[in-house]
Amino acid sequence: VNWLDVVISSTVLCRKLGVSIKQAMAPVLVLDNGAYTAKVGFSTEKEPRLIPNCVMKSKSERRKTFVGSQIDECKDLSGLFYVLPFQKGYLVNWDVQRQVWDHIFSKDVLNVNFLDTVAMVTEPFFNFTSIQESMNEIFFEEYQFKALQRANGPTWSAHKYSSAQQKKPLCCVVVDTGYSFTHVIPYCRGRKMTEGIRRLNIGGKMLTNHLKEIISYRQLHVLDETYVMNQVKEDVCYVSTQFYKDMEIAKLRGKDNTVLRDYILPDFSQIKRGYVKPLEEMSYAGKYKGGEQIIRMANERFAVPEVLFHPSDIGIQEMGLPEAIVHAVEACPDEMHPHMYMNIMLTGGNVLLPGFKDRVFADLRALVPQELEVKVHQPDQPIMYTWDGGVALSKTPGFDKMLVTRQQYDEYGQNICADKFHV
What we know:
globular, alpha+beta
């Protein structure tokens, strides 16, 4: 091999693509900027870091604020006060978001060298132009990244899903059920079908708040305990595939009630994190010798996640998730329907609720015409799937064409970002 020829030919190729050799080799920072956690890491890493996307204050340590993953240093997590950068799914509190990003990019976490790093960031669907412009400004003018790609998270997921299949599917539907919203997005050949996007205004935040309200009304005042109740939801709740039958079981007494669980609350001295009492140690009288504080969970375990499937249960006049999927697919041309129902992809934190995938499949099978096949796919890591998709996208041959470089931004300003990023 004549190495001089290799160098010359690669230089020519880079010139043709309009990128420098240095940019072709530049490290890529992938940031899936969720409303609950930011999933972030370099494209060379195996998996991202999950960093809480908020600033928190604790009752016990009033003066101190915890930014992002600093919350691990907090001794007493009861009555945590959250300041969130996202409200109703959109980035509105820039001061808080900057604090979290400064923390993520700092020496303690990722130690980013901005001038020769390419950034990839997610944003929500139908984002406001003002938010998009502020984001461009912060990434190019404040942090001074080398280049930027801004996209909707599910677009990365769709790319990952398509490229992972042996036979590339023509179409797919990504269901992204996160903290603020649940979105259903049909894709055809990697492009989103805007007319088919559906949004349910129900996400993990609403489920946690609903659980807090019913526990406060029935048992114990926990309205200030967002952090702890979120753990309760993650540890105990599940999606029922037979709601009315489980409701009947939840009314029974003693050992016949197979739904009943006791959740031991943390006291942050002996018990650092709450846990579910093992079945063999459960006392159906509800008293324990250790004097631990418990929450008794019966129908709350499945009635809370049920809100995703029947929002009308708590007075929200919207369709449930299965109907939204059908609605989204039917907004697309008829010839795409069989392909879409075969490739339904579930992502986002709520997918981790046990029974979620089976319930989505069962409800869809009842709604979709008999002659069409329905297949629902769930990745092993639904929270990190979008980030993985971003990493996969950064390694595709045409990736440079999706970027806006700092030189282009300096020359053309906001307009080039609006043209380049199809969001």
